[in-house]
Amino acid sequence: MNDVLLSVQNLSLGFRGDGGFAHILDGANMTMRRGEIMGLVGESGCGKTTLASAILGVLPRTALQVRGGTINFDGIDMLADTNAAEQESVRGRRVTFIPQDPFTSLNPVFTIGQQIEELMKWKSPRRTPGASWVPPIIAPYPRARRKIDREKVMEMLNLVQLPSPGQLLKKYPHEVSGGQRQRLMIAMALLPEPDLIIADEPTTALDVTIQAQILGLLRNLATDRGVAVMLTTHDLGSAYEICDRITVMYAGQDVETAPVGEFFNRPTHPYTAKLLESLPDGGGGMTGIPGELPSFYAPPPGCRFQTRCDHMTEACKTRPPSAIAGPNHVVRCFHPLHPTTTPTTAPAPAEKESLA
Predict the structure, then answer these.
(1) pLDDT band (50, 70, 90) for residue 131
(2) What is the DSSP string of 307-325?
(3) Average pLDDT of span 137-145
(4) Domain boundaries of the chain, sorted by first residue
(5) pLDDT at 342 (0 to 100)
(6) Which range, of 126-140, 154-168, 326-340, averages the lowest pLDDT?
(7) Closest alpha carbon to 267 in 282, 248, 253
């Protein structure tokens, strides 16, 4: 698959805590193609943000222990100790991040313009990486490049529909609205001209109208610029609106990956089916999923969903299920709700179907 941009294979990692070793990710897998939008969904605590943080390389090294697996970004091993220079050229440049709460990600004592200038000083696509590290306080920012970068900043602020960008750059973060701050973070994520943007629940703090605008903006930018987007979210409605494929996480594992239309119309893993059943219906009713997530300190030896599943058998208790792959669908289950077959060709996106 020469269009694969990101490949996460059998990634297992965790943290040492008071209760022992917490297995936060256990054999997690994900593949992203260039220019696609992948939705990463699941309950709180399932490992979505940890997986995104591992790809970015921003997890605390003092606590993190990687116990296996690989993260490969466009041929670069993001976990190898020998690839520090290549990894640094990827983070914040080829892979960027849109946070859940933009207000806490901006420094309140500097203007928006000062913070964007600092970003462009180090992560501009026009910057030539230095041969050695230079202290930030004396690092050069050539006037010619600064002028071009500022033009690109103004162009991007207009693209994300921020009014009066020249005046905006003089303001402090608290002087603009939540929707404007989120548009600003999208602009800052796009300015380095990345190949992949990781958006961590970017519409959580926004009202419904602004949410729709932000999602539409992400969809258009991905389509027009060919940027891949990993969208972590609890909102399945948002995932349906803009995603090409969806990966479901449960207790540190990927349990199902499918094109968005097939995901909503033909869920194959029992957890996915229950997740969709828990959405509010037209009459205002809602069905929860009984039980709780298993302990990350002592996960069950078999399927992690076993105690909450209506289809559990003895096999589910003793050994973890292997991933079963179909032409467009991958599911990790002994008893998939729909049959799957071994693929003979690379998976391709499927068209969205009616939810009726």
Answers:
(1) very low
(2) GG-TT--HHHHHSPPPEEE
(3) 81
(4) 1-94+196-281+288-356, 106-127+138-191
(5) 44
(6) 126-140
(7) 248
Say if residue 46 is exposed, middle or buried (CB neighbours under 10 Å; 0-12, 13-18, 19+): buried
- In whole angstroms, give the CA distance from residue 266 to residue 338: 8
Torsion angle of the four alpha carbons 130, 131, 136, 138, in this order, in degrees rounded to the nearest 10: -90
Superfamily for the 1-94+196-281+288-356 domain: P-loop containing nucleotide triphosphate hydrolases (3.40.50.300)
Average pLDDT over residues 294-322: 90
Does 347 score more than 80 pLDDT?
no
Q: How far apart are CA 261 and CA 112, in angstroms?
A: 40
HSE of 258, CA atoms in CB hemisphere, 13 A: 26
201 pLDDT higher than 60: yes
Sign of the CA dihedral running 238, 254, 24, 87: negative
Q: Give φ, ψ of 233 to 5 degrees.
A: -160, 155
Structure-token match 């039980």, residue found: 291
Do 118 and 191 contact (CB within 8 A), yes or no?
no
97: which DSSP letter? E
Residue linked to tokens 């965790």? 14
β-bridge mates for residue 197, sequence order = 96, 229
Q: Would you state the pLDDT for residue 355?
A: 39
Separation of alpha carbons 263 and 256, rounded Å: 9
Going across the sheet that includes 323-325, the strands are: 95-98, 196-200, 228-233, 37-41, 245-250, 253-259, 330-332, 323-325
Q: What is the DSSP letter of 75?
A: T
The rounded distance, in Å, linking the Cα atoms of 167 and 13 is: 45
Tokens 């909102």, residue located? 235
The first and second tokens of residue 264, run together, are: 């909503």
Comparing 232 with 100, the larger pLDDT belongs to: 232
Average pLDDT over residues 179-193: 90
